[in-house]
């Protein structure tokens, strides 16, 4: 720990922490209503996030990444095992050969959300991702709520991905049984008794890599992703070379529905709700904003470029599969395991290739997701909503080592004991909720300027638009044969957006990069995320409710008091004139905050 960090810790203790003893904590609990009122809606400016808050980590994360690192991270994060799991069942049971259009719809939705993330990340290049974006827009609790749900899903989904590695990798050596490399522990409960040591080893290895260097982790990702892209290219070429265009319209069984879209438009959109989860991972790229040399240039290319590249690959792979096999003969549980190729003769080695390709994808998606989760935890620690130990950045490696190690250990333990099906029942909804809130936050951020414009019109629009999108989604799922409700709710959504654009002016114009066609793109993102949320099952909402309740309890009994102490200490330092200029190196045009004679001043640093 450096001298500044020691001084900060000492000052924090001297000012009287809410957690310095039982008496102090009891007194803090008695003031909980007052503190909640003060802290729940408390916001920071982008300048403060990039200076005072960032300084709390002690050392700075090192800006070494270029745009191609971000593209590689984005592709590696998304191009995992999801496409192998979702394409088969969607093609056979939901969309037919039109699964390619389902990927197009899902890709558009992902790109719209990526645009929203990118604008925030360019304006405020810090590692907090959605947590920071929502904290400066809707206040502390909104950011905390989003961050806690994302952390939960990161850890659980990473554990699930790690266990799927042990399911796929043995097939490289011709081993078919999914538990062949797992060890059964007779003394443990069912569902937790198949110990997965390969998953444990993969998580520990990647944790060590991420602690050592973000740049070197990026190099590892690019190397592995390159081989993974070659595998996808092989699948695409093999499918088109050995397939038949007739398979795109004619089923093997004439009694089954025919045509390119045998399940109609509904089948395409219902399929999009399923395959969308193959795109989750691009949000991790935004958490790297603090480690990019030129954020305003690299972030738009890295985030949006990776989504476009992955969308193209998914579309080509899905067409190649349907080109090779009639949709009603696709193996829903294992579309790419080689059955489609065996009938051609000489392709019995295909499961080995698929196992290798899927394993590579799992490693890269796990690497990127673990990188993102550590940065979320680090920045939440900076806000003092969790113990500040998690916010420390190692001065030598420039990585959030404490957060990386802690989450790596949690992921490793869960992946070692917990069956895949148990973990999968607990993920996916939190990410969509956060995407939805971020899109709302962007519209609010663009049209509301505190102290200058009123927020009522924007808030009313966001509420009415979400209600309209919810009505459309419910009608879609509850009335399969009707369309009048879809037309009505769709028209209302369009009219609301057009009216809002006409009568509510933009109050904030981004300097470097902004989402085009405001507010249409983020409004479309809100609409699509509501639609996707309506497609999730009851268990997802139960998990979301339970974890949200646990998060709220933690915030009430710890987070609000810890952040209150931190702000009280900072306020006292400003009054005493103790705070010095906070410079953010290697970044152009950022604001520095300092005090002169107890007066707060802001200056622009051009480097």
Give a short overview:
This protein has 607 residues and is mostly helical. The chain is built from 23 helices and four strands.
Description:
- This protein has 607 residues and is an all-alpha fold.
- Helices cover 65% and strands 3% of the residues.
- It has helices at residues 3-14, 22-30, 32-39, 46-55, 67-78, 82-95, 99-123, 130-137, 140-168, 197-212, 214-242, 264-275, 283-286, 295-324, 339-342, 350-382, 401-417, 420-424, 429-447, 456-478, 484-503, 520-533, 538-576; strands at 183-184, 194-195, 590-596, 599-605.
- The strands form two sheets. Strands 1-2 form a two-stranded antiparallel ribbon. A two-stranded antiparallel ribbon has the order 3-4.
- The radius of gyration is 25 Å and the shape is globular.
- It starts with a helix and ends with a strand.
- The relative contact order is 0.17.
Give keywords.
65% helix, 4 strands, single chain, two-stranded antiparallel sheet, globular, two-stranded antiparallel ribbon, 607 residues, 23 helices, mainly alpha
Layout of SSEs?
Layout: H1 3-14, H2 22-30, H3 32-39, H4 46-55, H5 67-78, H6 82-95, H7 99-123, H8 130-137, H9 140-168, E1 183-184, E2 194-195, H10 197-212, H11 214-242, H12 264-275, H13 283-286, H14 295-324, H15 339-342, H16 350-382, H17 401-417, H18 420-424, H19 429-447, H20 456-478, H21 484-503, H22 520-533, H23 538-576, E3 590-596, E4 599-605
Antiparallel strand pairs: 1-2, 3-4
Helix pairs in contact: 3-23, 5-11, 5-14, 5-16, 6-12, 7-12, 7-14, 7-19, 7-22, 8-9, 8-19, 9-10, 9-16, 9-17, 9-19, 9-23, 10-16, 10-17, 11-14, 11-16, 16-17, 19-22, 20-21, 20-22
């Amino acid at each position: 720990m450096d001298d500044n960090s020691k001084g900060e810790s000492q000052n924090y203790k001297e000012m009287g922490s809410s957690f310095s003893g039982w008496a102090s904590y009891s007194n803090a609990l008695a003031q909980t209503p007052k503190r909640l009122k003060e802290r729940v809606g408390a916001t920071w400016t982008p300048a403060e996030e990039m200076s005072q808050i960032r300084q709390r980590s002690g050392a700075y994360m090192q800006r070494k990444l270029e745009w191609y690192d971000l593209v590689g991270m984005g592709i590696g994060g998304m191009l995992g095992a999801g496409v192998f799991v979702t394409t088969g069942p969607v093609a056979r049971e939901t969309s037919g050969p039109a699964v390619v259009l389902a990927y197009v719809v899902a890709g558009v939705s992902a790109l719209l959300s990526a645009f929203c993330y990118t604008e925030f990340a360019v304006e405020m290049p810090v590692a907090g991702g959605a947590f920071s974006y929502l904290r400066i827009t809707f206040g502390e609790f909104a950011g905390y709520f989003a961050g806690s749900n994302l952390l939960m899903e990161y850890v659980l989904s990473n554990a699930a991905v790690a266990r799927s590695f042990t399911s796929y990798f043995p097939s490289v050596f011709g081993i078919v049984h999914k538990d062949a490399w797992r060890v059964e522990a007779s003394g443990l409960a069912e569902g937790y008794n198949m110990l997965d040591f390969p998953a444990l080893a993969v998580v520990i290895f990647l944790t060590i890599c991420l602690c050592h260097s973000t740049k070197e982790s990026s190099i590892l990702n690019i190397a592995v992703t390159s081989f993974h892209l070659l595998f996808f290219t092989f699948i695409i070429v093999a499918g088109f070379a050995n397939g038949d265009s007739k398979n795109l319209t004619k089923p093997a069984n004439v009694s089954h529905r025919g045509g390119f879209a045998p399940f109609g438009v509904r089948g395409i959109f219902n399929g999009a709700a399923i395959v969308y989860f193959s795109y989750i991972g691009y949000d991790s790229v935004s958490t790297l904003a603090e480690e990019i040399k030129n954020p305003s240039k690299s972030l738009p290319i890295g985030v949006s470029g990776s989504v476009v590249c992955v969308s193209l690959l998914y579309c080509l792979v899905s067409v190649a599969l349907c080109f090779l096999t009639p949709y009603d003969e696709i193996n829903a549980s294992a579309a790419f395991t080689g059955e489609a190729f065996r009938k051609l003769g000489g392709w019995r080695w295909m499961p080995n290739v698929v196992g290798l390709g899927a394993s590579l994808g799992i490693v890269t998606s796990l690497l990127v997701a673990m990188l993102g989760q550590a940065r979320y935890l680090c920045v939440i620690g900076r806000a003092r909503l969790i113990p500040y130990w998690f916010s420390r950045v190692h001065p030598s490696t420039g990585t959030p080592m404490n957060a990386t190690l802690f989450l790596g250990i949690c992921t490793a333990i869960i992946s070692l004991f917990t069956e895949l099906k148990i973990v999968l029942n607990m993920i996916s909804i939190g990410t969509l909720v956060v995407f939805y809130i971020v899109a709302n936050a962007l519209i609010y951020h663009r049209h509301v300027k505190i102290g200058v414009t009123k927020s009522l019109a924007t808030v009313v629009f966001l509420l009415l638009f979400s209600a309209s999108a919810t009505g459309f989604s419910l009608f879609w799922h509850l009335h399969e044969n009707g369309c009048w409700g879809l037309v009505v709710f769709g028209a209302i959504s369009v009219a609301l957006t057009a009216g809002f654009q006409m009568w509510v002016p933009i109050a904030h114009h981004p300097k470097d990069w902004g989402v085009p066609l405001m507010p249409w793109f983020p409004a479309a993102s809100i609409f699509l995320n509501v639609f996707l949320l309506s497609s999730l099952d009851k268990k997802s909402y139960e998990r979301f409710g339970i974890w949200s309740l646990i998060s709220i309890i933690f915030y009430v009994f710890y987070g609000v008091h810890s952040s209150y102490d931190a702000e009280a200490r900072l306020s006292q330092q400003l009054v005493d004139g103790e705070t010095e200029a906070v410079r953010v190196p290697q970044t152009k045009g950022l604001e520095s905050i300092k005090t002169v004679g107890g007066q707060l001043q802001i200056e622009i640093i051009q480097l």
